[in-house]
Structure formats: structure tokens, C-alpha cells
Design brief:
With 113 residues, the protein is mostly helical. Helices cover 69% and strands 5% of the residues. The protein has helices spanning 3-10, 14-23, 38-52, 57-64, 68-104; strands at 28-30, 33-35. The chain has a two-stranded antiparallel ribbon with strand order 1-2. β1 and β2 form a beta hairpin. It starts with a helix and ends in a 9-residue tail after the last helix.
């Protein structure tokens, strides 16, 4: 399947798919565009998922050129970073919730005026 066909079929930007395929060394150049095997098309789906999850380009390229043990390390680091972001966001939410509770109980120190 050509990247252009995949992009059209999945309603994705062809330029994005082509860039990811090149970054991850997926596909074979052919007349009319890069040709992907079924396995490479699935791998490109994984690359899209990892990119959306926030994996940096350098690590994305390394992921596809590594063995399973290294891939597990990359995924564990990504998971740890995402978990830290979630914890940081939760702390901010907790602060907003605290202010909301104070306002709902009409605490004079929170009104700001």
C-alpha cells in the first residue's frame, strides 16, 4: 500500500505519514510514492501512536531501530514522563478545587476584593 493511499483511507496528512515513515525507516521508495508492506503500515500506526503520546523524534527513530529490550526501556521512560505530567496536572486541579470549595463556602479571604 502506498503512503498516499493509507493517508486517504485513514484521513491523515500524507506529509505527516511520509515524514514518520522516513524517520522510522519504513517503506520502499517506488514510482508514485513510498510503498509499505502490511507490517510496515502497522508499524507506522505504532509510530503515530508514540508520536501522539509525546515520544521525541530521536527516541522514536531509536525505537524502530532497536531490539525489544531497548524498546521496553523507551516505553518505560515515556510512561514515567507521562505519569509525572499527570501528577503535576492533578496537583494543579487540586488547587483549583480548593479555591472552588472556598468560594462556595464564601470564605472572605478568597474573594480578592
Amino acid at each position: 500500500m502506498k503512503i498516499s493511499e493509507l493517508a486517504n483511507h485513514c484521513s491523515l496528512a500524507e506529509a505527516r505519514l511520509s515524514a514518520l515513515a522516513a524517520l522510522c525507516s519504513l517503506g520502499t521508495p517506488s514510482e508514485g510514492g513510498t510503498e509499505l508492506t502490511d507490517e510496515e503500515a502497522c508499524a507506522l500506526g505504532v509510530a503515530l501512536f508514540l508520536e501522539d503520546a509525546g515520544l521525541p523524534e530521536g527516541e522514536l527513530a531509536a525505537y524502530f531501530s532497536s531490539d525489544d529490550a531497548t524498546r521496553r526501556c523507551v516505553l518505560r521512560r515515556l510512561r514515567a514522563a507521562l505519569l509525572e505530567q499527570a501528577h503535576t496536572a492533578q496537583k494543579r486541579i487540586d488547587k483549583v478545587d480548593w479555591l472552588l470549595r472556598k468560594l462556595e463556602t464564601k470564605s472572605p479571604a478568597i474573594k480578592g476584593g
